[in-house]
Write a structure and sequence with these properties.
The complex is a heterodimer. By secondary structure, chain A is of the alpha/beta class. In chain A, 36% of the residues lie in helices and 20% in strands. Chain A folds into two domains: 8-170, NAD(P)-binding Rossmann-like Domain (Rossmann fold), CATH 3.40.50.720; 204-379 and 455-503, 2-Layer Sandwich (Dihydrodipicolinate Reductase, domain 2), CATH 3.30.360.10. In chain A, the strands form three sheets. Chain A has a nine-stranded mixed beta sheet, with helices on both faces. A six-stranded parallel beta sheet of chain A has the order 3-2-1-4-5-6, sandwiched between helices. The radius of gyration of chain B is 23 Å and the shape is elongated. Chain B starts with a helix and ends with a helix. The chains are: A alpha/beta, B alpha/beta.
């Protein structure tokens, strides 16, 4: 962000989150993410006046195309996917003038020299001061070569000086601990950590950020946020779709890599972390890393007691037929790749000693929902007699991340009448109800933060490695196991074994 | 209340209620609504008091309030006083502002209470306002244009957390400065309209442009849309506040070790254009051509941090000084 000392007009501006002009180069510009998320997010920022008018966006991909064709394609994408629709023609016209396309190969040094020359031309024509953001939205196998080539071409460097050079790396960041470590080494050969933005779009979600606000901006919750009052925590990330023809990818990834190692672990870390010293990026990330490092390793040979994997079979989801995982295109017959995972995790620190955290994530569930629920310990005494107590149940604070973002608190209330009966009731806060305005898309927030140099909502190298360290042991155990993957009917909440994981501890999954 | 009343109420029609029992009648209507076939959610995150004298002011204020309530669910209290009208001194009506929540099914509703007073009926308005504000949520007072000073206004300012006004088209900014002394959180829609301009002007002096040239200015030429004089004066006031401009003499503004000539020109068409000239021949030209912010965007911003902008008071003060 430009400093108020250098520019007196910046001082005190409420809208100070206006980034300096820069060029954003998107590698993998012909891909779906560019069309569905990145360009619509940038256009929305332009509509909201959050981009300098001289900004440039350069799409880089192997596919032969031109500036004009790229602009037309992106206009169509914004018409379909931008948050502000229909398009504002005046804004689009200005925005489109900053859109360019550069054809090139990711492993070809000459392509990067051409890109460098093109960026210099654009800098000159649009008055950009050499600031650059490189967005790696290619298949992950291209990350190392792209980063190496960026370094070799002098497009990025480790000096961290102005003009800024920042690199956003899409997920997945590695496929296990070894590959994540290697990728971190590759990245840090040509960049310093302060220029690396590992994206996990869950962190850009308003409700994930609200988790921090709920905890640290209110006096009510934090005193209860520990093992003395919390009985257990449930984190659910459910998808109502199957793998939708992405068999080739999913066979390699599975739900544990696709959802848990990144998204759900980030949610877990924010739920469980200590209050950071400040909201500065490293202070926040230090606390998340401490949580991930405190995850108790599952004892060797006892993985089945802590982790359940499942795979959907044919069924119906909300009245729609769903074929079985085994029949999905690109899936190897007899595959044991998990589309469901449930696990019990303990965090060995002072705050959470003995409190189980149950995580589950799956495809082909009854509905799409992501939520965190803190289930509190019951009142110490059932004071209102046997009959009244039938309706007494633990208090639950549920934070809904998507959809219907909000927070609800369940507590017992007296049923009106002459007898003493207790019934659980919900006190609800819904974003859509209390704030009529639409929350920004995660990518809008994250792209803006990157341009402003704020890394707080991006994952750091040690964070990624800490989560892979824990998750990779599960993969190793599964690889060594001859056991079968549990089957569950598509459109249900998963296999019975997933329920038993909680029943053994006297708990049940919430119905989100 | 009849079921026809209920249907009219949730459909947005005004239902006459007993002035002494507004809360009671409203509660009855909501209770009935809760037993209907369609799920109804009531929401309220602000008290919005709309203060208007005369029909034209009411229409204008209502338009703004409706735009706001569509985005920020609020209990709207419309206080409409017609000093010279005949009829009952005071009447009250209630209605629901409902919209279907995303995904359908549930209706999201907030309530609107209109109190019509005539002649001496305005004496009742302060006590009614005190009784009808929802506790524990902030209160905004919305006036179309600039409010006239009155006992009711003083009462509203005392109860309010924010006063939303619009100085657009005002001949002078001085009365607003006086209001601002009574309630520091004045959100002036004219000031909010200048937000994209201020951003564009500030961005024009980011590196590599040398920001220190702002302290060596010799001339500022501002061109903006006909009728936007308040916005133009507020923009110049902001520049003056940020750059520590002093008094005006012979059409020139004093600055440290020099003087700045200010030229303002009003033209057809939207947008704003400013040219800055500095000693040594430095020139910077800024154009902000974006479409003006919508009423919805402005009133929503007025309830957010932009509506409590600390720069506003300083800029307004300097704009008033420049005016004189």
């Amino acid at each position: 962000m430009p400093s108020p000392e250098a520019n007196p007009l910046r001082a005190g501006l409420v809208d100070e989150r206006l980034p300096e002009p820069c060029s954003i180069v998107i590698f993998g510009a012909s891909g779906d993410l560019t069309k569905r998320k990145l360009i619509p997010a940038l256009y929305t920022l332009a509509v909201e006046g959050l981009l300098a008018p001289s900004m440039a966006i350069v799409g880089f991909a192997r596919k032969d195309s031109s500036d004009e064709a790229f602009r037309a394609e992106m206009k169509e994408a914004c018409q379909k996917f931008a948050r502000h629709r229909p398009l504002d023609e005046a804004v689009w016209e200005t925005f489109a003038k900053g859109l360019f396309y550069q054809v090139g190969d990711y492993d070809d040094a000459a392509s990067y020299q051409k890109l460098k020359a093109r960026l210099a031309e654009i800098d000159l024509a649009r008055g950009i001061n050499g600031n650059r953001v490189f967005y790696l939205s290619t298949p992950p196998s291209n990350f190392p070569v792209t980063i190496a080539q960026l370094g070799a071409a002098g497009l990025v460097s480790r000096d961290g000086q102005k003009p800024f050079r920042r690199v956003i790396i899409e997920k997945p960041f590695g496929t296990d601990l070894a590959t994540a470590r290697q990728l971190n080494r590759d990245v840090l050969k040509v960049l310093d950590e302060a220029s690396v933005y590992r994206i996990d779009h869950y962190l850009g979600k308003e409700t994930v950020q609200n988790l921090m606000v709920l905890r640290f901006a209110n006096g009510l919750f934090e005193p209860l946020w520990n093992s003395r009052y919390v009985d257990h925590v449930q984190i659910t990330g459910a998808e109502s779709l199957g793998i939708e023809g992405r068999g080739g990818y999913f066979e390699q990834a599975g739900i544990l890599r696709d959802m848990v190692q990144n998204h759900l672990f980030q949610v877990l870390a924010i739920t469980a972390m200590e209050p950071p010293v400040s909201m500065a990026s490293d202070d926040l990330r230090d606390e998340k890393v401490k949580v991930l490092k405190a995850l108790r390793p599952i004892p060797e040979g006892r993985f089945d007691e802590f982790v359940v994997r499942g795979q959907y079979r044919e069924g119906t989801i909300a009245g729609r037929r769903q074929i079985s995982y085994q029949d999905e295109p690109g899936v190897t017959k007899g595959s044991k790749r998990e589309s469901y995972v449930a696990m019990k995790i303990f965090i060995d620190n002072w705050r959470w000693a003995g409190v189980p955290f149950y995580l589950r994530s799956a495809k082909a569930m009854p509905k799409k929902v992501t939520e965190v629920a803190l289930v509190f310990r019951e009142a110490p005494l059932r004071l209102f007699g046997e009959r009244a107590s039938q309706g007494q149940s633990p208090n639950v604070l549920a934070i809904r991340i998507q959809p219907d973002e909000g927070v609800s608190l369940r507590f017992g209330a007296k049923v009106p009448g002459n007898t003493m009966e207790i019934q659980p009731v919900n006190m609800e806060f819904r974003y859509g109800t209390s704030f009529g305005s639409e929350p920004p898309e995660a990518y809008e927030r994250l792209l803006l933060d990157c341009m402003l140099g704020d890394q707080a909502l991006f994952t750091r190298g040690d964070e990624v490695e800490a989560s892979w360290k824990w998750v990779s042991r599960i993969h190793q155990a599964w690889d060594a196991s001859t056991g079968d993957v549990e089957s569950y009917e598509a459109g249900t909440w998963g296999p019975a074994e997933g329920d038993r994981l909680l029943l053994r501890d006297g708990h049940r999954w919430r119905r989100p | 209340m009849t079921s026809a009343d209920l249907e009219r109420f949730t459909g947005g029609a005004a239902i006459g209620v007993d002035v002494a029992g507004i809360e009671r009648d409203l509660a009855a209507l909501w209770r009935q609504a809760a037993t209907g076939t369609q799920a109804v959610t009531r929401a309220c995150s602000w008290n919005l008091v709309v203060h208007a004298e005369g029909d034209a002011a009411l229409d204008k204020a209502k338009l703004l309030a409706d735009a706001l309530v569509a985005i920020v669910p609020s209990r709207t209290l419309v206080l409409h006083h017609r000093p010279n009208a005949t009829g009952p001194e005071i009447e009250a009506f209630v209605t629901a502002n409902c919209r279907l929540m995303p995904g359908g099914g549930k209706l999201l509703c907030s309530e609107e209470i209109t109190v019509e007073s005539r002649g001496k009926g305005s004496d009742y308005l302060p006590s009614l306002t005190r009784a009808l504000l929802v506790p524990d949520i902030p209160t905004a007072v919305l006036c179309a244009g600039l409010p006239r000073e009155s006992a009711l206004l003083q009462e509203l300012l005392a109860a309010g957390d924010r006063l939303i006004i619009d100085s657009h088209g005002a001949e002078q900014l001085q009365p607003i400065e006086r209001l601002g002394k009574a309630l520091p959180r004045v959100a002036d829609l004219a000031w909010l309209r200048t937000a994209p301009w201020r951003l564009a002007v500030a961005a024009a002096f980011d590196a590599p442009v040398d920001g220190s040239m702002l302290f060596r200015l010799t001339r500022v030429k501002l061109q903006c849309q006909q009728g936007w004089s308040s916005e133009a004066r507020l923009l110049l006031g902001w520049l003056g506040a940020r750059l520590s401009w002093g008094t005006v003499e012979d059409g020139m503004v004093q600055r440290q070790q020099g003087r700045v000539r200010l030229d303002t020109e009003f033209v057809e068409g939207p947008g704003m254009h400013v040219e800055f000239e500095a000693e040594g021949g430095g020139k910077v030209s800024v154009a902000a051509m974006a479409a003006p912010l919508s009423d919805e965007a402005l009133v929503t911003a007025a309830l957010g941090p932009r509506g409590a902008d600390r720069l506003y008071q300083a800029s307004l003060r300097r704009a008033v000084e420049l005016e004189s």
